[in-house]
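[step 3/7] fold_predict: job queued, chain A
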Amino acid sequence: MTRVGREMRMPKVVLCMIGAAGLLLGMALTAASVNAQPVDPERLALGKTSIEVSAPPVTIQQLGDIVSQALIQLNPDLKDQIAAAVPALLPRFDHSMATLKEDVARVYAARFVAPELKVIIEFYKTPAGQKLAKEMPAANAEADQIARRWGSGSRRICATRSVETLRRKVSL
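[step 4/7] structure written:
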């Protein structure tokens, strides 16, 4: 690899790191707005419990693996640089994950009353709730792909029909 080749690739690594830093900043700004709202301590505790029972815990290492895989998919030629850069960001994510959990718990506490949160928690303790928690990420990813395909097709149909309508009106 030539020196020029390396110089051309470095901006992508820098952009990836800037993107990760932007994610952290976004999380911090979200935390500031969410934390500004007072929340009943019982509902907050129930919100935290509902998160714990409804989603498998993600470790910092798993988060790093997810981020690395996503960045490598976008930039496969930067695999080595990404593998070296992401671990350096993980300590920052460690603190922000605790903040993220707290903030999401606040959202749950603001949207659900204590009796509702208790029902949610009890549901996720059932076999169906545990299966939902386990299958939800894959099901959501699949549903997202279906929705994107549908949206893409719908946009094409709308665009085609709009052009046809405009042509009819102009030629009349």
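[step 5/7] annotate
The mean pLDDT is 79.
The helical segments are 3-35, 41-54, 60-74, 79-111, 114-125, 127-171.
exit 0
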